[in-house]
């Protein structure tokens, strides 16, 4: 029997999945790592932590593997998007990686928009300039750390650096490159115009490849450190949201998924690059050649719940914290939360906005706050659903993935707030499954992603909207949508005290 490994390099942890040639998941392991928040708005990680965590996660799987490890024929990746890894002359890492949820680059975003022009940016990249994307981070290093910038020979994204550490080969795949704001989406190449206008050395951009491209084999040293065969073939992989889309079957028109990971994502398949959302949602290349997807991002989705848990209920597991939320009616007895605890992206591209609890009453207890946090996160994802609907899309079914899909009440809440049928996967790790599918298609186990989807994706429970909850949540959503406007100016005044 042949096997493939999928490595999902997430924000909070790396998850390694082992899949057999029938598309069944046979083993998995997880290793967590931390985020560094040196200042408000900063979010970094040490690339070395990714490498050691991945090595340990694979080692755990190979130690349990009962067959010859050469039966693990291929591996691929799903990676947290946009994070900037800078390499010097000898491919050494020059500074910690600046991540997707780092919002220090508001000034650089304004400079890019002014220098390149918003119309040009939208025409070339199909996206607006946002703090989370990679290009503003490159300019930030250029301006604030010129001694480091002078040494830069290549820039990579997180999973590309991981792949380099495992193979010695430097590449970037199109689905992840789309999130740099340097890719000309129509031409499928680095944008010479943006690069020239911003005075960036084109040599720092890595070679672009498709997700199923075979970049090479594992280095002898990495293979022996994690117990794999050095003949294991390595395929490029994709952005975590592209892989999440693969892993939840969003590979054809009309398919939509919602993910509550550290961030929150509402994502739908786009057949072509010609739809125009005027940058209101992100428009990126899929991991399938010549396909695209659009998505809106809630910066702190699962992160809002993990923040609440860490800050107010550290001793409790998620299951303990959420055990009584179903005793509370929709709307948490008048308590409303906006999940802008680290700024927001969709629909408000605003790095300064912060979250609120509105309507705190003496009757509210910890479980009300926990439920309000979950509701606020889903309201925020509904903002993107409304953008899709206003462009004429009909979305009646969604696949829900990510850590948030582990909680059945949260899944029901999604059905009620989106007024749509929610399907859960048997294993909620969509991006990891997508990474396995890339390795399986790359190594020829499946002819294409349609065949891989048939074999690898197993739908679990189904959640139907409950009409009285839908009605109540519609009313509450109307109140929710007013909070941003009404708290924006207050947060501007509060900024100096952060
Ligand atoms: N048992 C659970 N119940 C509800 N939510 C959970 C549970 N476990 C994890 N989560 C949520 O999922 C988030 C992590 O999701 P995950 O997809 O693993 O993140 P990432 O890929 O960004 O590292 C946590 O921040 C938390 O909000
Ligand atoms: O910034 C984005 C997408 O644009 C995030 O979705 C990151 O890709 C991180 O994802 P998770 O760790 O939350 O899955």
TrEMBL record:
What InterPro entries does UniProt report for this protein, alphabetically? Answer: ATPase_NBD, Carb_kinase_FGGY, Carb_kinase_FGGY_CS, FGGY_C, FGGY_Carb_Kinase, FGGY_N, Xylulokinase
Q: PROSITE patterns from the entry?
A: FGGY_KINASES_1, FGGY_KINASES_2
Binding, substrate: 81-82
**Which controlled-vocabulary keywords does the entry list?**
ATP-binding, Carbohydrate metabolism, Kinase, Nucleotide-binding, Transferase, Xylose metabolism
EC number(s) stated in the UniProt entry for this protein: 2.7.1.17
Q: Which positions are catalytic residues?
A: 240 (proton acceptor)
Q: Name one GO biological process term.
A: D-xylose metabolic process
Cite the position(s) of the site with description Important for activity: 8
Pfam families documented for this protein: FGGY_C (PF02782), FGGY_N (PF00370)
Indicate the segments forming the Carbohydrate kinase FGGY C-terminal domain, all copies. 257-442
Domain named Carbohydrate kinase FGGY N-terminal: residues: 3-247
Catalyzed reaction equations = D-xylulose + ATP = D-xylulose 5-phosphate + ADP + H(+)
Q: Which GO terms describe its molecular function?
A: ATP binding; D-xylulokinase activity
EC top class named in words: transferase
Q: What does the record give as the function of this protein?
A: Catalyzes the phosphorylation of D-xylulose to D-xylulose 5-phosphate.
Q: Family assignment?
A: Belongs to the FGGY kinase family.
Protein's name in the database: Xylulose kinase
């Amino acid at each position: 029997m042949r096997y493939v490994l999928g490595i999902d390099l997430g924000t909070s942890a790396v998850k390694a999945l082992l899949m057999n040639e029938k598309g069944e998941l046979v083993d998995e392991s997880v290793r967590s790592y931390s985020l560094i928040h040196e200042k408000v708005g900063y979010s970094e990680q040490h690339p070395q932590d990714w490498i050691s965590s991945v090595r340990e996660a694979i080692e755990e799987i190979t130690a349990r593997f009962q067959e010859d490890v050469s039966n693990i024929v291929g591996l691929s990746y799903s990676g947290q998007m946009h994070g900037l890894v800078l390499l010097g002359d000898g491919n050494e890492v020059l500074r910690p990686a600046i991540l997707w949820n780092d919002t220090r680059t508001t000034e650089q975003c304004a400079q890019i928009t002014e220098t390149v022009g918003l119309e040009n940016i939208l025409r070339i990249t199909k996206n607006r300039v946002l703090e989370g994307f990679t290009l503003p981070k490159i300019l930030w290093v250029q301006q604030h750390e010129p001694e480091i910038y002078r040494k830069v020979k290549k820039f990579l994204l997180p999973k590309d650096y991981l792949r380099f550490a495992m193979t010695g080969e430097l590449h970037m795949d199109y689905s992840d490159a789309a999130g740099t704001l340097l890719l000309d989406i129509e031409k499928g190449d680095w944008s010479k115009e943006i690069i020239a206008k911003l005075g960036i050395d084109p040599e720092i951009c890595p070679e672009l490849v498709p997700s199923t491209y075979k970049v090479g084999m594992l280095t002898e040293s990495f293979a022996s450190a994690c117990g794999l065969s050095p003949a294991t073939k390595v395929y490029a992989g994709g952005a975590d949201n592209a892989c999440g889309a693969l892993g939840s079957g969003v590979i054809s028109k009309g398919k939509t998924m919602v993910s509550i990971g550290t961030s929150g994502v509402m994502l739908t398949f786009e057949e072509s690059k010609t739809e125009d959302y005027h940058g209101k949602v992100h428009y990126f290349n899929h991991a399938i050649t010549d396909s695209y997807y659009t998505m809106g991002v809630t910066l702190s989705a699962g992160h809002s719940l993990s923040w609440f848990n860490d800050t107010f209920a550290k001793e409790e597991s998620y299951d303990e914290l959420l055990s009584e939320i179903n005793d509370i009616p929709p709307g948490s007895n008048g308590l409303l939360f906006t999940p802008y605890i680290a700024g927001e992206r969709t629909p408000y591209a605003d790095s300064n906005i912060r979250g609120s609890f509105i309507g705190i009453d003496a009757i509210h207890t910890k479980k009300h706050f926990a439920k309000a946090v979950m509701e606020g996160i889903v309201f925020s994802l509904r903002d993107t659903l409304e953008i899709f609907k206003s462009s004429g899309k009909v979305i009646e079914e969604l696949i829900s993935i990510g850590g948030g899909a582990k909680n059945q009440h949260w899944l029901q809440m999604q059905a009620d707030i989106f007024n749509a049928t929610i399907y859960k996967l048997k294993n909620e790790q969509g991006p990891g499954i997508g990474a396995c599918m890339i390795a399986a298609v790359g190594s020829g186990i499946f002819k294409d992603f349609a065949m891989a989807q048939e074999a690898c994706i197993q739908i679990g429970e189904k959640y139907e909207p409950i009409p009285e909850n839908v009605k109540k949540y519609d009313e509450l959503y109307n109140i929710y949508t007013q909070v941003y406007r009404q708290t924006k100016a207050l947060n501007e005044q509060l900024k100096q005290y952060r």
